[in-house]
Sequence to fold (471 residues):
Amino acid sequence: MSSINLINGGLDVQSIVDGLITAERQPITRLEKQNQTHQSKISAYQTFNSKLLAFKTSVDSILFHGEDVPLNVPSSFSDRLSKSLFALRKATSSDEDVITATAGKGEATGTFHVTVDGLAGYHTYGSANFISNTETETGTGTLVIQKGSEDEVTFTITAENNSLQGIRDEINDADAGFTATVVNDGSATPYRLVITSDDSGSANELTITDNLTGGSALTLAQIAAANDATLTVNGVEYTRSSNSISDVILGVTLNLKAESGSSQIVVERDVDSIVSGIQDFVAKYNDVVSYIASQSKYDPATKKAGILAGDYTLRDTRSKLSSILNQSIAAEGYSLSLLSQIGIKLGNTGTYTVDETKLREQLSADAENVAHLFLADATDSEENTISLVPMLHSRLKGITDTFEGPVVRATNALQQNIGRVKHQIEEMESRLETRRAILLAQFTKADQALRQLSVMQMSLTSQLNTLSSLK
Fold:
């Protein structure tokens, strides 16, 4: 008689349940991929926003070079010009041992003949020499010091601080506009107390009243006078309290170095900085446009375009920015109205190139005309007020606004979607865990039943085999 083999063992419960859960988890996998796509878009938007901010910084540098950006752009061309990149000047000195010069923004240009007749000095007093700066005891009482027309400052000297070092510390702790030091001149009695006004010029002269009695006398005496600087610029005499003078030539700081001597200071428009600023402006715009183009470019290898291909925010931004750069800023009295006239030309890819030679020629010929093209207002055919850099500043300010800008809004919408999907995934995962527990219980019972059938099968087979052997 043949054996009956009903079942050959139990079930691999864990593998069966894992397989079923994996199949049922497919909707979650699709949602996770959806969130990965959202996150990739957010990263792409962040990159785009960084490029826009870099362009905005370049635009703001043309408008407010080196200054804090105000809430509103000045309304007049002259006010804009005075703050702008085009107001930059550079100054050179024919003899830097006598005078050095630095220039910021201003209107002055030309050659200035400067003669130095005297340097400003810091009023300084020195004491007698002492053998020790910590152990020699001076008198006690009060030391009264007045700087210029400021209030007198009284220092009380007692047995606790009546050494050169103690008096020094007492004076310096007051931070009263003058400084005390202890110097060592290398002699047999090397230590001296030196008191110096913190500001130069006769207006900052020190008056010291020594009311100390007993001990070793300080014997304070003047060792450097409080002189004013004296100089002549193009035949006009000036007296100043400092050797750094910024109110004689507008926008230029003269730093006097020698007690006497002459130098020619040449002040001119800083064309190099202006060209560099305009080149950076064009480069940063090109970076924005190139990034937008890269998102729409199809990659044959991956058979995909950029993650933001066809995105409205990118397309709208490009349209808004390019329309400003392509405007004609025509105004009576100014011959320049288009960027192409100064060597900034639009290419087939939507980016611009800069002909530096032509740009420099235009700046040399009529820098104000170039500045007007960038900074001034004009009127279009529909009588709307238009401008180039001021409009870009306003437009970019809105686009990159951290609360209401389109890039932020698009990013926030994606973040909200990610949050909703995550919540949905969590709920589905929770239900799957419950489902897993139910399946484990069901298949465990089935496995136990099958194992019992397996035991019964073996028993029945054994009995049948026994009966067959009796025949």
In short: The chain has nine helices and 19 strands. Confidence is low (pLDDT under 50) at residues 1-8. The chain has three domains: 1-88+271-471, 89-120+229-269, 124-224.
